[in-house]
Amino acid sequence: MSTVRYDWKPVAARMLFSLFAVFSLYNPSGYSYWHWLTAGLEDGLAKLAVGLMLAGVHMVLWKTVLAVLRPRGITFVLLLCLCALALLWQVGAADLTDGDTLLLGLLVCLAVILTSGLIYSSIMHRLTGIAHVEEVPH
Known about the structure:
Blueprint: H1 9-25, H2 33-38, H3 44-90, H4 99-128
Helix pairs in contact: 1-4, 3-4
Pfam family, one: DUF6524
Organism: Humitalea rosea
InterPro entries: DUF6524
């Protein structure tokens, strides 16, 4: 086994990217693509371009996560996130009766699912030494 320590910077970068991808699409603060899209008809071409870009990013992310984690893994990560959210509610750190707080918790759960799908291969390679590769036929 390698004596090199695992670097958590890529995990943090993937988490930040997942948070950006999820919260740029919609968030309760009012600064998201959804709010910009429903604000009016001006800048229609820019809204279309940004929407197509966001749709492409989300399609690639979710295709990757579904291929890596499969539905059972996604269900497991979702249940862990919801348990953590319930624990925060029980200790009084989060008020889940407020709709915005509940929505923020669910959006963070989606970001955690995306992050776990993006880091799974590198963590498993570090733990087992097995590299995950996909051979593409020519």
